[in-house]
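Troubleshooting: if your tokenizer reports a length mismatch, compare your output against this known-good record of 160 residues.
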Amino acid sequence: MNLERILAISGMPGIYSLKLQTRTGFLAESLIDGKKVTVGLRSNVSLLSEISMYTHDGEKPLAEVMRAIAVKENEGPAISHKEDNAKLAAYFLSVVPDYDADRVYPSDIKKVLNWYNILQSKGLVSKEESTAEKQAEIEAIVEEKVVEAKAAKKTKSKKE
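Known-good structure output:
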């Protein structure tokens, strides 16, 4: 699931797909009704790929949360974001068992489920990791190995 070009724009309902960047902002298309909107640089815009949810161990990227929902629902729709807060919290706990209930509010859960259902209706959810995520994971592992090799080389040269 690739959330790189999916936006949430403050003050505007739903989520948007980034179409092109202009000199004064950018052009986005609503994933709900397909209408195109121009957004200025002063608007508060969040890329879904940059959003994380609080867990007891730190933070979990939104892509991982949505992938967990896709696995639970077999890439089908999740429960409605309009359910009562207790039902939403219980559902979210079954999807992300380590989420921090003190810092993740019911409004956050509603947004995530609403966004997931919008993306699912457009066929943009997947149980699989996107190639960009796999590439980033591979690059992180390679970087870690390089650092380890340099440290081992320094240690070896100091002993000689």
